[in-house]
Design a protein that fits this description.
Layout lengths: L4 H8 L3 E4 L2 H17 L10 E3 H11 L9 H18 L7 H18 L16 H20 L7 H11 L7 E5 L6 H12 L3 E5 L8 E7 L2 H17 L5 E4 L3 H16 L14 E2 L3 E2 L4 H11 L3 E3 H9 L10 H13 L4 E3 H11 L4 H15 L6 H14 L10 H20 L9 H14 L1 E2 L8 E4 L9 E6 L19 H6 L7 H16 L2 E9 L22 H8 L30 E2 L5 H8 L1 H8 L15 H18 L3 H5 L3 H18 L4 H4 L2 H20 L5 E6 L3 E5 L2 E5 L3 E5 L5 E7 L6 H4 L7 H7 L9 E8 L6 E6 L24 H20 L19 H4 L1 H7 L1
Parallel strand pairs: 1-2, 1-3, 3-4, 5-14, 6-12, 6-13, 7-12, 13-14, 15-18, 20-21
Antiparallel strand pairs: 8-11, 9-10, 16-19, 17-18, 19-20, 21-22
Helix pairs in contact: 4-5, 4-6, 7-8, 9-10, 11-18, 12-13, 14-15, 16-17, 17-18, 22-23, 22-31, 24-26, 26-28, 30-31
Length: about 900
Amino acid sequence: MSAYESIFQAVAAGATLFTVNRRLARTLLDGYALYKKKCGVTVWKRPEITTLDTWLSCRLADVGQEGNLLNPAQSDCLWQQVVRADLLKRQLDLMQIQATTRLVAQAHRLVVDAQCLTDSSHYQVAALLSPEHHAFLRWQSAYLHRCQQQGWIDGAALTDHVITLLDQGQVSVPSMAVFIGFDEFTGSQQRLQDQFTKLGCRVEVEVPRPSLNIKIERFSGQDEGEELTVAACWARQQLERGAKRVAVVVPDLARLQNTVERIFRRELARSLFPERVPVQSFNVSLGRPLAKQGMVATALTVLSVGYSVDFETLSYLLRSPWLAGGTTEANSRAQLESWLRRQNIREITLSSLIKVCRNQGKGNHSFVQLITLLDNDNKRSRNQSLVKWGDQFNQLLNQVGWPGDRSLTSDDYQALSAWRDKLVPALAALNVVHGDTNRTTALTMLRKLATEQLFQPKAQDDRLHVTGILETAGLHFDAIWVTGLTDQILPGRVQHNPFIPTVVQRHFQMPHSSIEHEHHYAQVTIDRLSCSASQVVLSHPAGDGVVSFSPSPFIPANIHCLTSQQQDEITALEGDDQGRDITLESLSDEVGRELVVSDQPYEVAGGTSVLKDQALCPFRAYAHHQLKVRALETPQTGIDNRVRGDLIHKVCERFWREVTTHRQLCAMTDDELLQCIKQLTGEVLDQARLNDQAKELLSIERTRLTALLFEWISCFERQRQPFTVVAVEQRQQVQVGPLLLTAVPDRVDCLDDNSGYVVIDYKSGMVKNSDLIGESLLEPQLPIYALKGLDQHQQQIVAVVFAQIRSGECAFKGVAADDDVMPRVKSVAKSAAVKRGIDDWPALLDDWDRQLDQLAHDFSNAQAEVNPVAKSACQFCDLARLCRIAECEESC
């Protein structure tokens, strides 16, 4: 803290130290304590080290006016009321009220700071006022009138109000004022300094002073990722060498925060001296919205539940640990969620959900109580003050057991304190400018406050700071690296406020109004950063992979770049292990736990899908059928495709149990056929277990399904040569290799000319002949039926076909022993199997037998390699997050 010693001497002599932000104030307070201890003092008076805004607020407290000051949230709420009232009066509308009011409030602060008049006389320098400028004048006048009526003090005018109190002698002036960390002063801050001087206060401005032995270097990374990686390695290296305070400045930290934290954690974790490097607790100056904290997000979600709840919200509440029973009922709640997913529940009323939980969610007593409380709370909703809404929200959260029954960490306690001590009181404070309102509006305001309130845990390490440019103002470090110094960052771009004429902004030299101002600010910033440490690195990315970037012209030209050797030294690990080859251990998990196969075949659940999964991808088969792992289903709007496929199977099953021959089918007129299908479809749909949303679509589904099946039966089944249905959904067990499987052919027809049998499998999706006769057997169920599944008829099968039942795409697809067995189904001799040397039906059966036996033995031997037969096999697979094949492809 030697850099601040002269300042501490002034503070000890009675000076008031004004800082630009709270971070600098905290640093100086800690530094002053070390300074006094170094001087041998054990007890001292609290020093006057404070932010300028805090000092101004305290002056209002001195005269009893602190309750009249509008905080930023109150001011924003008042601006929105003024703008909405004016738009309503003029019968106008805006899409983004909040975004507009932010710009209006900014324009107001600029005008107040520049001491512009609030009427149009000061705009005479503009040739023409736009509608936006006239609107701003109206809104500003109405806003100030409301403040005057209610006796409120506008936050933008706080400095000028305190200047008036100083001039009137109502508050005292410090004997000496020292300003530190200010790159530039606003107009109102300049007026305050002038008032201090007028009243006999000595005013000093602490400016950055370069050290005698400053070492400044520059670096250019290929992109932002490389630049941040090298910066993180450099920071690790500095700490390992004994640096006490290191800073890495990231100008666009808000955009890059996630990337920065990931890179720094990864690179810091590589250190061979973990006691010197804060791996997880390094200080990131930018907090995250309080609404993003898990505890607070759960609270806002609970409060947002209305008379019904959508599945996404319900799933979140079932998995949240921040509610009563979140840990003790975790397993039963997971089972309840899984059941809701299978039932395709998209939305459900709270009263219906209570019944479902009692019937299906055994062990979910706390969750049933939570839903009951939410249902009762909705019934007593009424307009009331924001103070009462805050109390009601807290009461409801306490009743549902928020924030849960598990032990809270330090960060959890801080988030809970932020909710109770900052967020809810902030909502109550809005009652000053907002009248009674309904629950929806109160909750919207609370959510907005939670989004704008940044949360940052206090227990962070002070050795490494990752900050934006402004947060380093006035601070000193042992070493500092400044990233992102492109010509797009320094100088910044000119940004005119749309509610103030451009010529007025330039005339009063408002911030960001001219390139001259941006150049001056850029130079001041570079000078200040260059004086912040004895070792400085200024860097910029060369591009982002698409666009090339130029370095900022304000980076000094006379400093040398880091050499390749220096870069290698930075990114290398230091210590005795530097340069040592590290051999990573590897483990092959392509083979799982084999099945215990004895003389008897091993019975496997899942039917023929076991071998289909094995053919598509060995890992898929192992995960589904041995590990019993499947992804949770995602509820879909309406009736999902799986249910639709089941409905087709059930209607077809009933139809062919009634109409058992081709002759009987042909004897039916179209009207009789249509009436029969309509009746059977209605019976199946009436018995189907559908959720409430799906039931609303029953009439549409009945019409769709009836038309589809009429198209299929009348246009395709009638066109076949005569047949008799001999089996429908006939379940039987078959042995394939060492496995015992359950086979359920959808239908088996016997051709009336006694030429053989046809096995039919219904499909509501698209199928390909190549899945049956290609090099890889991807649809093994039909070959299994042909080889193993028809008992005494297995030698007389002459065709296996899929009945593809899709609107506009109906077709028979498969393969037959001879031509003309089935409409448009080719014989083996005319199929693509000929390319593989298979030209007749017995040869195809032998090939199927070989492939099925190999698939069965591979599954039995637990061959579980992630090796999909084609990319299309992954398209509808539910295991992508488990096998992570996409990550493997990216790394390749």
